[in-house]
Automatic annotation (TrEMBL):
<dbReference type="Pfam" id="PF14649">
    <property type="entry name" value="Spatacsin_C"/>
</dbReference>
<feature type="domain" description="Spatacsin C-terminal">
    <location>
        <begin position="95"/>
        <end position="250"/>
    </location>
</feature>
<feature type="domain" description="Spatacsin C-terminal">
    <location>
        <begin position="28"/>
        <end position="91"/>
    </location>
</feature>
<dbReference type="InterPro" id="IPR028107">
    <property type="entry name" value="Spatacsin_C_dom"/>
</dbReference>
<dbReference type="InterPro" id="IPR028103">
    <property type="entry name" value="Spatacsin"/>
</dbReference>
<protein>
    <submittedName>
        <fullName>SPG11 isoform 23</fullName>
    </submittedName>
</protein>
Amino acid sequence: TGHKQMFNPTEESQTFLQLTTLCQDRTLVGMKLLDKISSVPHGELSCTTELLILAHHCFTLTCHMEGIIRVLQAAQMLTDNHLAPSEEYGLVSGTLKTALLDYIKRCRPGDSEKHNMIALCFSMCREIGENHEAAARIQLKLIESQPWEDSLKDGHQLKQLLLKALTLMLDAAESYAKDSCVRQAQHCQRLTKLITLQIHFLNTGQNTMLINLGRHKLMDCILALPRFYQASIVAEAYDFVPDWAEILYQ
């Protein structure tokens, strides 16, 4: 007819599945397809991908979990080996975005920059917020890892950690807000106020510790603060509801 035939992967897969009905054991067909992958030339990614898809169809029809796991592991290796070097994760289908991010977090647990890059590819603002919040909490944990008195001896380092935590927490609040995660955004905003107040105290020569407080220390801390707005910031940051009448009386 002179018209160019269009390749339709769905139709091709259906045709293949119809052929497999001639076989007594579709699992064996899937295993043979996986074995063939090793003989495919290195650059023929489309052929390798097609073999994986067809093998997955075979294993799915027979509920062969071992085969399905082998296919998924091979697909993960392909993703990491061919997309990671060129940072082309955006080529992956959007329906796989959560699975891809979880996989990268497992394979590269300390690479927060890579996590954020993938999340940005798919506009996963909530996940970006979670990454920023986790990074901010790491800064606070670094401060908590030594006694407060020791941290005060190196005031410059302490302020640097607080400023980094503040920046990350602000970014987290913004990312959460973009994804309409109101509760998480508000929580991060309350923590930014707490960190800002802590920095203000240090800049004005006040050594009162406001961050990383245990519940048993909250009341004493709030009573020691000279201003009501300061007490309110601390209480909100820790989701603490004190007896305000008693505090105001004190």
